[in-house]
Every structure is written in structure tokens, then in C-alpha cells.
Write a structure and sequence with these properties.
Layout (H helix, E strand, L loop, with lengths): L7 E4 L8 E5 L8 H5 L5 H4 L7 H4 L9 E5 L30 H4 L8 E2 L3 E2 L7 H30 L2 E9 L14 E4 L8 H12 L5 E3 L7 H6 L6 E9 L4 E2 L4 E2 L3 H15 L15
Parallel strand pairs: 2-3, 2-6, 6-9, 7-8
Antiparallel strand pairs: 1-3, 4-5, 7-9, 10-11
Helix pairs in contact: 6-8
Length: about 290
């Protein structure tokens, strides 16, 4: 029997500079055999909801003085950017049909019902015991780790800045008019991070020639709303990057120019890894 890997990978550098954390809760790509046996969807379809390769794009952060936290298991198994109580009664048996938010109604609760384009993950609902097992085995350890990192940063530096990294399908922006953004930043309209922090993050992406949009169509979900407390100097900004900039969305493979894109992302990460919430931004100079 193959042992499952830990549910997340955490890297806090010895020279952690200012309490910046880059996280990727949706780039996990370990699909357990028991999970694949319980779905009729092929793995490449399951991967359509994955923020593929985002973990690779932020891997350089510890070299520049920032911490990282990345999930090992996929979003279609457990969604770490949802609350543990966001359970869809259409996919989990024995759950009361209490008022649901729009995400859960769409099948995108903590135990997702569908992947991209509304394709059902399971042919039949799962038991509540199985949902609880997934939450306890994958969701809780990730959030315990994230909480401990934020608390450690706050205690050590007087601040914690979580840059929550995601990717968005190209067609997620088809409804927008005007210039199409490459990156969408969400700070829940100022509730999860200060305008100053968001401005600095936007400027780092702009410096690489990427167009940035704020809070639409993604303002931030569970992680931003739960952990972002700007009045306590805990800032969370959700970052959504257009997948088509660096990967083939049909085959879920890096584009030939992936290394160039990763180099540009490395410059963004380097510039933000020593970010200060107040006073001077203390951005690192280019090497």
C-alpha cells in the first residue's frame, strides 16, 4: 500500500525577512488511487480545476526571504479556499439543506461537486463520514499550518502579509469589456488588506508589463475573508493569474515560454518578499 504524502509543504527560510507568505492552496497534484477509483472522470479532466504549476512559480520565494505554503492534494478532493462548513447537500449525504452561498450552490463547496464546465466529479453523493474524513485529513492540517505561520509572522515582525496565489481559466474573463487583465487582485474591497499593500503588489506585476484589475471578478474567498485583518496588520491579497499566459489549458502542460514567464514571476516575488506593511515598502533592489 502506497503511503500518502503530507497534505502540504511548508518552507520558512532561516532569513525570513518581514513576515511575507506566498501560498498556493489549489496547485496540489497528488490524486490518491482511492479518489480516482471513486470518479468516472479522467485525471486530465479533474485537473481542469487545479491551479497547475503555481507552486513552481512561487518556489523561489524562500531564496528571497519569504515563506511558502503549498497544498499537495487537489482542489477537487477538498477545496482549501472554502470554509469547513460550506458543505453541499447535493454531494454529501446527511447534510441539512441550510441556506447556501452562491459558491456552494454552484457545486464549489469544501467538497466540490463539479470541476470546470460543471462536470460532475462523483456519480453519486458521498457519505458525511467521508466528507468529515477529508476535511480532517487535508483541510484542517493546512489551515492549522497557515494559522501558525501567520501568528509567527505577526509575533516576530508585527505584521503578516499573505499573498494567496491562484490561476484563472482564460474564459473566466470572457464577459469583461475593455482591456483584458492578466492578473486580478482581490482584497475584498479593502477588508482583507490595506490599499497600500494592494497598490505595491499591483505595481510589482505592472512592472513586468502585466495588466492588473482589482476585485472583479474575484475579490477573494474564504482565506482572504477569514485571515485578512488589516487593522491588526494582517493583510491577505488573493492573486489570480491568467493560466493561458504560461500553460496550455487543454493539455495542462507548460507553454514553451514557461521558463521566461517564471523568470518574470521570480522578479515579482523577489520585489515583494521583503514587503513592509507600514512606512517604506523596503522592496529589494534588482540584482
Amino acid at each position: 500500500m502506497t503511503c500518502d504524502p503530507p497534505p502540504f509543504e511548508m518552507n520558512v527560510p532561516g532569513d525570513w525577512a518581514s513576515g511575507v507568505i506566498f501560498a498556493s492552496p489549489h496547485s496540489g497534484d497528488h490524486y490518491p488511487d482511492w479518489f480516482l477509483a471513486g470518479t468516472s472522470l479522467p485525471q486530465n479532466v479533474l485537473r481542469s480545476s487545479e491551479d497547475a504549476f503555481v507552486d513552481r512559480l512561487i518556489a523561489s520565494a524562500p531564496n528571497h526571504g519569504a515563506a511558502t505554503l503549498t497544498a499537495r492534494f487537489p482542489r477537487c478532493l477538498v477545496d482549501l479556499n472554502r470554509g469547513a462548513d460550506e458543505i453541499d447537500p447535493h454531494i454529501v449525504r446527511g447534510v441539512p439543506r441550510h441556506p447556501l452561498n452562491q459558491r456552494t450552490m454552484a457545486g464549489l463547496g469544501v467538497i466540490p461537486r463539479v470541476v470546470t464546465q460543471g462536470r460532475a466529479i462523483h456519480d453519486n453523493p458521498i457519505d458525511r463520514a467521508e466528507a468529515d474524513r477529508r476535511i480532517n485529513q487535508y483541510w484542517r492540517p493546512y489551515h492549522q499550518a497557515l494559522t501558525s505561520m501567520i501568528c509567527a509572522a505577526r509575533a516576530r515582525f508585527g505584521q503578516a502579509i499573505l499573498i494567496d496565489m491562484h490561476s484563472m481559466p482564460r474564459d473566466a474573463l470572457n464577459h469583461l469589456s475593455g482591456a483584458r487583465p492578466d492578473v486580478v487582485l482581490g482584497n475584498r474591497h479593502g477588508l482583507s488588506a490595506s490599499t497600500r499593500i494592494s497598490d505595491i503588489i499591483a505595481a510589482a506585476f505592472n512592472a513586468e508589463g502585466w495588466r492588473v484589475r482589482r476585485n472583479a471578478p474575484f475579490a477573494g474567498a474564504y482565506i482572504a475573508s477569514t485571515y485578512g485583518r488589516p487593522t491588526q496588520n494582517i493583510h491577505v491579497v488573493q492573486v489570480e493569474i491568467d493560466r493561458s499566459l504560461y500553460m496550455d489549458e487543454a493539455s495542462i502542460t507548460p507553454l514553451p515560454g514557461f521558463s521566461v514567464f517564471a523568470t518574470r514571476m521570480n522578479r515579482v516575488i523577489r520585489s515583494l518578499s521583503r514587503l513592509e506593511a507600514g512606512g517604506n515598502s523596503n522592496l529589494m533592489a534588482a540584482e
